[in-house]
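Final report, closing paragraph on structural work. Over the funding period we assembled a curated collection of sequence-structure pairs, and we close with a single example.
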Amino acid sequence: MMDEHEGPGLTEFLDNRLEYRRLFSEAWGTFLLVLVAAGAGAVSAHPYGGGLILPVKVIAPGVMVMAIIYFMGTVSGAHLNPAVTWAFALRGNFPWRRVPGYIVAQAIGAFLACLFLQSTIGGIRHGATVPAPGVSDWVAVAIEGVLTLGLVSVILGTSSGARNIGTNAAIAVGGYIGIVAVWGAPVTGASMNPMRSLAPDAVGGQLSTYWIYLVGPMIGATIAVGFEYILKGRATAAGAEAAQGALGGDDTADP
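Its predicted structure, as stored:
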């Protein structure tokens, strides 16, 4: 007999054969995020983009992430970032078997966004994240690592209970991205996301500094998992729900 909270739609959603819904969600969400993050730089390279001042460009991705969590967080968990997917899996809130699919979906979304920008307005190289002149590569790695450490700590922290889906997570994560980017963006671009950096670098044909935006965020995300264990102990079923979407499947961690 069907539970009063179940229905044909929910039963269908829980069918693991429909993994494409989560993957589509990650691709679409990452597309929107990169469209805003890289698009601001690409547009500012043109005369008509002169009004895009730094605070607007750095806060926009945070607001976009907030919106994405609201509209699709319950579908896939709204990772939008390989470092976040890695952290959730390392924490035990996300099954490793789903990690490759999520990362491929994020790559598809990010590359489609950059190809769209390049084909419509051009200047995708200006949407890339690069260290500012005078900032050494290893200083950039350290800054990206610390920024990502904070971001993943916020994500893991808000996914540890009933607050994970909805206003608290969306506001906390989006707000964090916008606030730290105010000082981080002028130094490194405040990427905190290996895929957000890879796509414009690859489409623009400049990959010489990409390693910074892979190494820094992955180290930061890994440390954040350790911090979360210190703060809250083992992974929880609520955390698994947040990582996979409230309606996203039956792979839940033990309390």
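The CA atoms of residues 12 and 26 lie 19 Å apart. Confidence is low (pLDDT under 50) at residues 1-13, 161-165, 248-255. We thank the funder for supporting this effort.
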